[in-house]
Design goal:
Elements lengths: L2 H21 L1 H37 L3 H26 L3 H34 L1
Helix pairs in contact: 1-2, 2-3, 3-4
Amino acid sequence: MDVAKIAAAGILTAIMYSFVRQLKPEFASLVILGGCSVILIAVAERFIEASQTVNTMLELAGIEEKNVSILMRSLGICVVTQFAADICYDNSSSSTAAAIELAGRVGTIILALPMLQTVAKIALGMME
């Protein structure tokens, strides 16, 4: 991933946002959404490559794939939630951003429940 290209895309998006906000404020949010989407797609491609490498390393270490899957999905929820909330904050909609953040937290907890059940079973087994 070329960080310089991503930074340039971010700066270009910010500049375009400033111009569009002055001319047509109703379209300014779309500029931010489009620019951030391009950046996220570029990052996602590299993330997929990195996750495959991590999966290979975890297989060698003998860690269960379902636990790794839960962790990777949780990370995805965090990234998407933060992205959506930041766009809402940029558009002066803090209550919507707070609701999105809450949904992300709840989604992560729900996703982690099978992992927590496994930990509870191990703890109960150790206590017996």
